[in-house]
Amino acid sequence: MTAGISRITDSEVERIRADFPILATRTSKGKPLVYLDSAATSQKPRAVIDALSRYYESYNANIHRGVYEIAERATEAFEGARARIASFLNAEREEIIFTRNATEAINLVCHSWALTNVRAGDAILVTRLEHHSNIVPWQLLAEKTGAELRFLELDGNGRVVLDDLETKLQGVKLVAIAHASNMLGTIVPLQQVIPAAHAAGALVLVDGAQAAPHFPVDVKALDVDFYAVSGHKMLGPTGIGTLYGKRSLLEAMPPFLAGGDMIRRVTYEHTTFNELPWKFEAGTSDIAGAIGLGAAVDYLQGLGMPWVREHEIALTSYALERLADVPHLSLYGPKRAEERGGVIAFTLGDAHPHDIASILDSEGVCIRAGHHCTMPLHDLLGLTATARASFYIYNTYADVDALVEALEKAARIFKL
Ligand SMILES: Cc1ncc(COP(=O)(O)O)c(C=O)c1O
User: Fold this and answer.
1) 193/11 Cα distance (integer angstroms)
2) Torsion over CA of 217, 220, 226 and 232, rounded to 10 degrees?
3) 206 - beta bridge partners?
4) Residue 410's closest CA among 360, 346, 353?
5) Does 214 sit in the ligand 1 pocket, CB within 6 Å?
6) I need a labelling partner for 250 at 20 to 30 A (CA). Which of 2, 174, 232, 346 fits?
7) Integer Cα distance of 327 and 323 in angstroms
8) Following DSSP, what letter does each residue of 137-157 receive, concatenated?
9) For helices 69-89 and 287-303, what crossing angle results, to 10°?
10) Tens digit of each residue's pLDDT (9 = 90 or more) over 223-258
11) Over the stretch 131-188, which tens digit does the pLDDT of each residue have?
């Protein structure tokens, strides 16, 4: 274990694991489940599963319009979840918009803010490590508006190069940037990027899909303009995410989707829109999903986000050390656990990552193989695919050991 990195005790993690019913199950081959794919989606604690069933079993009703008891309870629970997420990110309640996922949160900014504010000759600045969700919307915007899509480069360890940030910011209207990479693990130093962007007159949208679940995020301290969050990666259900936006920006933006709930008054000729946050929530929201996400946030806050981060650093550091000893294994991304989230992408000799993942699956070890929605980044690194292990609050040192043993078995099978 690297000096200075504290070791989280197994009993702390065992207590957490007991809250996740799926972790007590076995695979069809009778192996204990070693779940190392939380960057794709996290497992859900009993508290989240119960919050969903409680809603459907005891107060299922549509929100906002009902005057009967269970409708009022549903509205209270839905809006209560919003308040909890706001407090989790240190935002105001009105600044949290429920979306389907992080992708939709980014698209909301693209369609509402960017389509109104970006013109031919302007630039959007992203990095080379972005997920497709934070590249494709901007490519489409660039095609529609004639704006330029510009990139911050990466160094040899997968860190974003900021030496030329000021130059790259010239003419930029929006910096759209990941807080943490889902392939390299890199944590982007936003405290450097955001003030520089603001000084250059640009707004900043942060893709927090791999950050908000893993370390404390304070949108006010960051002074970020928009922050996209994915619910299903932070113990919440699928189908729910949030967008944080500064109130003054959201107020000035046109609606994204149009229909029920987002209106104040509609005539056959004209519509006036609801106030924040509902102006951006057209139609019936994922009520259960939002309530489930509220329960997930409660769970994470119960652990404390500093603890979540500490655990992740300890585990990632241990994994980086152990994986470095596996022959023929190449690791990608920053060398130190402190500079990265709990995501480790790797290749093993010339074995195809899908074959590696299949062998690991036979040992009950769940990892991801492919391009992880970062095809351009794989192209840049000269890779067609990688295998990826990712950790979360319920993973143990024994899970890392199981990963290493399964990889050693894979290496023997491939005769590496
Ligand atoms: C960095 C990053 N951004 C965005 C997304 C998309 O998240 P969602 O599934 O919530 O749309 C992901 C999902 O893998 C991601 O890792």
Assistant:
1) 39
2) 30
3) 177, 227
4) 360
5) no
6) 232
7) 9
8) HHHHHHHHH-PEEEEE-B-TT
9) 40
10) 999 999 999 999 999 999 999 999 999 999 999 999
11) 999 999 999 999 999 999 999 999 999 999 999 999 999 999 999 999 999 999 999 9
The torsion of the CA quartet 304, 309, 313, 314, rounded to 10 degrees, works out to 10
CA-based nearest residue to 213, from 179, 247, 190:
179
Residue minimizing CA distance to atom 14 of ligand 1: 40
Q: Does 7 score more than 80 pLDDT? A: no
Average pLDDT in the 185-211 region? 98
Per-domain boundaries in the chain = 3-32+304-413, 49-302
pLDDT tens-digit profile of 29-81?
A: 999 999 999 999 999 999 999 999 999 999 999 999 889 999 999 999 999 99
204 contacts: CB under 8 Å, gap ≥ 6: 174, 175, 176, 177, 190, 193, 194, 197, 198, 224, 225, 226
CA atoms within 13 A of residue 295's CA, in its CB half-sphere: 23
Q: What atom in ligand 1 is closest to the CA of residue 133?
A: 4
Helix extents (H) in 325-385: 353-362, 375-380
Top mutation candidate among 97, 133, 343, 374 for ligand 1, by most atoms within 8 Å of CB: 133
Q: Which residue has the tokens 């990889």?
A: 407
Any idea which residue has 């023929």 for tokens?
Answer: 328
Q: Which helix (H) or strand (E) holds 335?
A: none
Query: Do residues 10 and 399 make contact, with C-beta atoms less than 8 angstroms apart?
Result: no
CA-233 nearest atom, ligand 1: 10
pTM of the model: 0.97
H helix intervals, 190-286: 190-199, 219-222, 247-252
| Per-residue model confidence as pLDDT tens digits over 82-108 | 999 999 999 999 999 999 999 999 999
The CA-to-CA distance between both ends of the chain, in Å, stands at 27
CATH topology of domain 3-32+304-413: Aspartate Aminotransferase, domain 1 (3.90.1150)
Q: 388 in ligand 1 pocket by Cβ < 6 Å?
A: no
Question: What confidence score (pLDDT) does residue 6 get?
Answer: 60
Please confirm, yes or no, whether 373 is among the known catalytic residues: yes
Residue range 335-363: mean pLDDT, rounded: 97
